Structure formats: C-alpha cells, structure tokens
Amino acid sequence: MSNFTLKGRWHIDSSETSRHFVGKVQDPGVTGLRPGDVVTVTYQHQHDRFVGHTNDSHVQGGYSLEGMPSQTFVLASFLRKDGVVGREAEHAGEEQLWGGDLYDRASLSPS
Questions:
Q1: Is residue 90 part of a domain?
Q2: How many domains does one find in the chain?
Q3: Residues 80-111: pLDDT tens digits?
Q4: In whole angstroms, what is the distance from residue 73 CA to residue 94 CA?
Q5: Which domain of life, per UniProt (predicted)?
Q6: Domain span at residue 43?
Q7: Single pTM value for the model
Q8: d(CA 34, CA 80)
Q9: Using CA atoms, how far apart are residues 19 and 58, in angstroms rounded to an integer?
C-alpha cells in the first residue's frame, strides 16, 4: 500500500458520472509520481443495485488515478485531508488537499 496526497479541486457536480478531481501531487508516496505532476482522479460508476425490499438503489463504483492502470493498481480510498468531507468538499473554489491509498494488485493476490 502507498499513500499519496494531491492539492486541487473537484470538477462537475457530484451527481454527474463525469465528475473528476484534478490536482498536483504534493506527496507521491511510492506511486512513481513526482511532486508537481498534475493528475486526475475519477469515480467510475458501476450499475445500480437495489437494497433490501425497498426501491432504494445504491451506486457502486471505484476511484481511478490517471496513469495507474486499474488492472495493476487499486485506488482503495480518496478522502479530503484538510477539512470536512461532505458538501463543503464539493464546492469548486479554492484548492483542497485530498489523498488516498493505492494498492498493487500483485500484493493482494494470495501466494
């Protein structure tokens, strides 16, 4: 696992499937990225599923870090590091610090 931090902001409303975060690398961890690199994180939606016996649906999906092939790497989390997560994190305005955990799929495979 490797932790990394980006400074940037979300683009597009949170309800849109094309929503993405564009930021500059602040702390690359052991991702192979360099400080100052500009990268994009997207949330890739999968199909809805129905929860229980109600008509409530839940969107599933996962994050993808540009330049890190999803067949090789898993971006397990992507969270705000310098403030409140929620509506406040969705506003397109000043840049925010966000970061995540990146796993190499090879390290997750049973031996």
A1: no
A2: 1
A3: 998 876 655 555 578 999 998 888 777 766 65
A4: 29
A5: Bacteria
A6: 2-51+58-85+95-107
A7: 0.72
A8: 20
A9: 17
Query: What are phi and psi for residue 107, nearest 5 degrees?
Result: -75, -15
Phi, then psi, of 92 in degrees rounded to 5: -80, 110
Residue 63 lies in a domain: yes
Q: What is the pLDDT of residue 92?
A: 59
The answer to whether 23 and 4 are in contact (CB under 8 A) is: no
Question: Is the pLDDT reported for residue 16 higher than 90?
Answer: no
Place of tokens 């949170």: 14
Q: How far apart are the first and last CA of the chain?
A: 17
Q: Judge whether 36 lies within some domain.
A: yes
